[in-house]
Amino acid sequence: MPLEIVDQGEGRWLVTFRYRSPGPAAEPRRRPVSLAGTFNDWDPGATPMALEAAGEWWTVTLDLPEGEHLYKFVLDEEEWEPDPDNPATLEDAFLGTNSVLELGRLAGRLPSLSVESDHQWRAVTSPRRLEIMEFLLSAAPCSVAALAEVMDAAADGLYHHLRILRKAGLVREVGKVDVAGRAVPVFDVVARELRFLGTEDPERLVALWRCLGRRATRMLQAAGDPGETRLSLRSDTGWLDDEMFGKVRKHLLHIHRIFAEGRQSRVGSLYSLTHLLSPIERSRRN
After folding, report:
1. Per DSSP, what are the bridge partners of residue 188?
2. Cys-Cys link to 19, which of 58, 157, 189, 226 (CB 3.0-4.6 A)?
3. Which CATH code of 3.40.640.10, 1.10.10.10, 3.40.220.10, 1.10.3380.30 fits the domain covering 109-225?
4. Cα 88 from Cα 96, distance rounded (Å)
5. Could you tell me where in the chain the CATH 1.10.10.10 domains are found?
6. How do residues 16-46 score in pLDDT, each as one tens digit?
C-alpha cells in the first residue's frame, strides 16, 4: 500500500507510512516495527509503528515539512529494510538502499540525469556552477538570496550562473516566495545525480576534470594551515583486474553517499573531495 500524503498547507504534510506484516493475517508479526530516517536522526527507537486491528499492516503518521526525507523500516530493532511499496530509492553510505520521500516542490526531482547536450556540457564545466548545484541538493528549494547565504556568496554573482543552468535543463524554477512584498522565484536541481558516462568526445571529460581541478585548487587554498586541518592529499596508480576495480568503485560509492548524507544533516565541518578514477595507457610520453 503506498504512502498516504495529506497537504496541510504552509509547507507541512501528514504522511502515513505502512509496513505490511510478512506473515498471513491469521499469524501477524507481533515483534516490533519502527520507522527511522532523516526526520528522527535515524534513531530506530524514536518512531515505533502500531499494528492495525486486522493484524496485517504496521502504521505511523508523521507531520513533516517540505523537502527530501530518507527512511527505512526497522524490524525487531536490528533488521533495516527499505519500503517495498515505494519505488523511489537512493543508495546509502553502507551500500544499502534508502527509501526516498519528497514533499512539496522537490517532488519532481529525477533520480539521475545524463549530461549529453552541448548546453549541458558547457554548463557543468564551471567550478561555480558545480558548486551551486551541490548546495541546491541540500538547501533547495530556495531563492537566490537564500542560496547566497548558505554558500556565503554574493547573490548578484549567482544570477548569471543560474540562468545558464536553467537553460541547460539542470536547474528548474519550482515556485515563488514572498520577500518584502515581492514574489521572487525559488530554484531546485532537476535531478539528484548527474551522470557523465557514455560521451563520445573524451575532450569533454578532460574539460570537466580541468574544471574540477580548478575548484579543488581553490578549496586547497581556502583550507588554511594544513598542519591544523584534516587534510588528505595523494595519488595512486596500480594494475586492477575486474574484481579489484569493482571493490574500488564500491568504496567510492560508499564515500559519495557519506557526503550526500552530510549535505542533508549539515552537521560538523565543511569538506571537499575530488577524485578521478580512469584507465590509462602507459607510454614514454605519459
Report:
1. 172
2. 58
3. 1.10.10.10
4. 14
5. 109-225
6. 999 987 665 545 556 789 999 989 989 999 9
